[in-house]
Amino acid sequence: MASQQPLDLPTPSSCTAGTGSASVSKEVAEVQRLFKQSGVKYSMHSAGTTIEGSWDECMRIIGQCHSLLHANGVVRIQSDIRVGSRTDKKQSFQDKVKAVNDLLAQDGR
Amino acid sequence: MASQQPLDLPTPSSCTAGTGSASVSKEVAEVQRLFKQSGVKYSMHSAGTTIEGSWDECMRIIGQCHSLLHANGVVRIQSDIRVGSRTDKKQSFQDKVKAVNDLLAQDGR
Amino acid sequence: MASQQPLDLPTPSSCTAGTGSASVSKEVAEVQRLFKQSGVKYSMHSAGTTIEGSWDECMRIIGQCHSLLHANGVVRIQSDIRVGSRTDKKQSFQDKVKAVNDLLAQDGR
Amino acid sequence: MASQQPLDLPTPSSCTAGTGSASVSKEVAEVQRLFKQSGVKYSMHSAGTTIEGSWDECMRIIGQCHSLLHANGVVRIQSDIRVGSRTDKKQSFQDKVKAVNDLLAQDGR
């Protein structure tokens, strides 16, 4: 039986680290449409969607994503939100990626 | 229709921030049994389970949790692992909670 | 040099999986005091703090934690918020832990 | 004083939800170089880096990232790993993004 000797189990032969939650394309598309309508700056990628705005705006929109999916019949929703704020300077999420890519471009490889 | 005017939606009237993933008690109990058998130091709480050990040991056991649940018929599993390592000193997860509680105890409120 | 052959590096000999963010006790204590004043239902554990309430209430308080630490001189803050909402039933975070513990109690071990 | 009336504090006027951890470009670039050398399939984006491979391979490489940064003098490191595995089908992280974009393309907007 499966649960008899779990410590002898191998770890999964494949996984995707960094991958976002539910992966149900239809639901994710619904959420993208909401982001589009909202006017917030957003970018979908392989680990979810990054959005940028005031704290209250970002959190309200994410809450509305939950409400939208609930309204569409999804009974339970779990989101993982990583949120950063800083007072030293204003840096967009594109700036952050660019800063790393600029460093890598100097590698000459 | 639900998806017509998502931006007019209220945010959910209740939520639990910090709450761990699947919340299916039976599956979570399976995972706790695996942790118990493994001999690793662990502690279940309202946001998941904290474990402590070498990197390879911790990651292998979490992978075995995935394999165990897959073996029990769960087709897709998503875990959120927050992992920390430090070189300055050795501090157990109990020490961390204690350090905060010690500070709060001085508040006299 | 350290970065020459990173692929030959061993993984860390110890880590804590599930451990919450900054771990600076003083800052964490500040946040606990804010939760206490807020009147929200909360519980600190080894992976952070779980809070329970309406979406807007929870998110506003977490945002105020950022503002509080910024006001105390912390320049950059990163939070990891796992948030769940469900429409099928109301279940507190204590109920969730209890449901698992009840199952484990039946194990007779 | 800052911590006197935290509940009167406004939430931050800007934030980036979904944004990855430390944001120190130099350290992130180091990690990207390690991923490149490793031969693992990877993709950097605004919320971190997604990698794909066997469980053990992915976790070993992430552990080596910690070790690399420790070797470069970073005393404490915290990573947030979201990891998924599934038994129903094999789907790369590009496939996942494509599945959503295909749906959105049918919107005609």
TrEMBL record, chains A, B, C, D:
InterPro entries: MTH1187/YkoF-like (IPR029756), Thiamine_BP (IPR002767), UPF0045_domain (IPR051614)
Top-level taxon: Eukaryota
Thiamine-binding protein domain span: 17-100
Entry's Gene Ontology cellular component terms: cytosol
Gene3D superfamilies: 3.30.70.930
Region spans: Disordered: 1-23
Family: Belongs to the UPF0045 family.
Name this protein carries in UniProt: Thiamine-binding protein domain-containing protein
UniProt lineage: Eukaryota, Fungi, Dikarya, Ascomycota, Pezizomycotina
